[in-house]
Structures are given as C-alpha cells and as structure tokens.
Design brief:
By secondary structure, the protein is mainly α. The chain has a single domain, classed as 434 Repressor (Amino-terminal Domain). Helix content is 65%, strand content 0%. It is built from 4 helices and no strands. Helix 2 (33-40) crosses helix 3 (44-51). It is globular. 10% of the residues are buried. The mean pLDDT is 83.
C-alpha cells in the first residue's frame, strides 16, 4: 500500500512542478492571466487550475499548445533517481 501512496505523491509533485513552469512562462512574457487565457483559447479558470498544478487528464497536446503559444520548445526529460 505504501508504494501506491508514494506514486500518488510523486504524481502530485509532478503536477505542481508542471503548473509552476506554466505560470513562470506566462510571467516571463509579462502576460496577465486573462490575456494568456485568451491567447491559449482556454478559460481563465482552466489556466489558473493548470498553473496551480491541477492538470488532471491534460494531454500532451495541451502542453505542446502552451509551449507553442508561449514561444517555448517542449522538452520532457526523465532522470533516474539516485
């Protein structure tokens, strides 16, 4: 049972990290949330949920669209735990 809890905690941490990166991209472009939501063709609440790490069932295509609209190259890497 502990292994399952660890996986859930790891996934939650990953979601928070992705959300923080999405928010940082927006802030680097000095975009208010309302303008960014319009640019991304998503609702303001959806953007704020994403930025707070509530990505739920977000598909890789959504991440790609965020990166494209914010002028970032999408790069996903996995590192082995040591």
């Amino acid at each position: 049972m502990g292994h399952h809890r660890n996986r859930i905690k790891a996934w939650q941490a990953c979601q928070k990290e992705i959300g923080a990166q999405i928010k940082n991209m927006r802030l680097e472009l000095d975009l208010p949330p309302q303008i960014a939501a319009e640019l991304l063709h998503i609702g303001l609440n959806q953007l704020l949920y994403l930025e707070n790490g509530y990505i739920g069932k977000m598909q890789i295509t959504v991440l790609h669209a965020l990166a494209y609209k914010y002028h970032y190259k999408l790069k996903i890497s996995f590192e082995k735990k040591t």
